[in-house]
Design goal:
The complex is a heterodimer of chains A (240) and B (350). Chain A is an alpha/beta fold. Chain A is built from eight helices and ten strands. In chain A, the strands form two sheets. Chain A has a six-stranded mixed beta sheet with strand order 6-7-8-3-9-10, with helices on both faces. In chain A, strands 2-1-4-5 form a four-stranded antiparallel beta sheet, covered by helices on one side. A two-stranded antiparallel sheet of chain B has the order 1-2. The chains are: A alpha/beta (240), B mainly alpha (350). The interface between A and B is medium-sized, with 25 and 21 residues.
Amino acid sequence: MSDVVTTHELTMRFGGVIAVDAVNFSLRERELRCLIGPNGAGKSTFFKCLTGQYPLDHENGRVLIRGTDVTGWNTHRIVQLGIGIKMQVPSVMDGLSVRENLWLSARRIHGWPGADGAVEEVAAELRLGDILGRLVGELSHGRRQMVEIGIVLVQNPWLVLLDEPAAGMTGNEVERLIGVIHRINQTASVIVVDHDMEFVRMLESQVTVFHQGSILVEGPAHQVLNDATVREVYVGNRAR
Amino acid sequence: MTAWQSGGRIRWGWFLLATAILLLLPLVADTHTPTVLLIWALFALSLGMMWGYAGLLSFGHSAYFGLGAYTYAVAVINMGESTAPLLLAMMVPAIAAAVIGAMMFYGRISDVYMGVITLVVTLILFNFMSATAGDAYVIGNARLGGFNGIPGFQTLNVPGYPEISLFGLPTYYVCAVALLLCYLVCRWILARSFGRVLVGIRENEARCELMGYNVSAYKTAIFAVSAAMAGLAGCLFANWAEIVTPRMFSLGQAAEVLIWVIVGGLGTLIGPILGAIALGFVKLLLGEQTVIDNSLVLGALLIIVVLGIPRGVVPTLQRAWASIGRQSHQRHSKAGTARRRLGASPGEHE
């Protein structure tokens, strides 16, 4: 299968600090990949480089999505390729209702006539149907996370990038989220950024471990999470 | 009620009542003062639309008010007929705003810097126009006139008939129609996808970008639409005053419209209109006395409103009205439930 996302020597510096250091990464079609690493490992910066949230030029390396060089593209242009992005902190519109949040996202893809149907479909899948009329600002953190995932899914993306999607969710919500991510993965490639080892273990995906801005190790979850180096990076970092 | 639900909805009963009042007002009052109040209301509406619904605060919206006025004056002096100058008075500010807006929004300028840039633009125009007294500052037959401005140009005429000038009562009706039409245009915009995206941008710009909307393009577009309305207001003001001066670009003018919008209420269209009419009327009344400075009173009013009712008068009244409605509904529901219980089980009651 061909690569959906490829980075060549992707580098991001903030002053004298190298947050992402010449990373070569690739993701295949329909692959589910978790990017993990302790705080400050560079995984969120890498995520923001992929999604155009940090301005890049070719001195920063290159980002290719399905072969298109998107280095330096604005976020909205990258999204228009068919990519769904969920941020670390829920990025939703608090002053609008759940339905309006979903509708605004759906309208860009499905147009005015098709948006309502798409909203109902996603709301049913994510069990948001009973709160469609509620203001998003009134919801719990976990539900706001789910609304944001709904905003992403309603556009039927072929590549989904999720930054810490389970943060702040209850056990039941996390279990449902895992089901949702696997369902998304049936039709789309997925990258999940997280530092919760248990959540990553439950996803049973391929894992890329970041450490000090570089890729430390890659492989299946069960193998990587039992790797002595990885455990030392995690435990050592937490112990400090 | 969210901004989507209220933004695109026209309360036709209120709209027709307002239309009737505007239509009949000349029967009971002189139209000179109401005309300028309607012009100020249009100016406030232009800023209220952009600030209240798209979250874009321009500290120097008077730039487009003044540009509209100067464009009309210069064009009508050169053309002799007012139809094209009237259109130019909307187009020139819109194009200027589109250029400035594109530079700001595509340049990812943050809100604070946007405020500073818009303020600087109007200050530059104020200083430039004030320094155009010399013979060198002539556009065609129109002398810009420096601090004294441009007096004595032809006012609006019936389209195609330059010899039939509109002044007094007809000007009042032109201003009333302009305000009502712009109000309807704003409601129409808010009811469309474009308006909904604008509200989304106000709520969370980053999310709209992540949804794939070109946020910079939307912001530039509404900035230009708002400037066109401000330019129309400036053009009508020029016709009412029969003179344009650099004072139209002044900080005082820029601050006044902000105060009207804040006091009337952000996030509504009727709030800025009523704020401009009420405070404009107060300003005119205060202008007839010399005991206290106008600006002091307006400043004090702003402080009182911001501290007492930070949402502004209209949103506060709307909330109070909605709250009364809810309480009344709850009382009726409880009374209905009690009646049903009494009717269904008389034995229990006994």
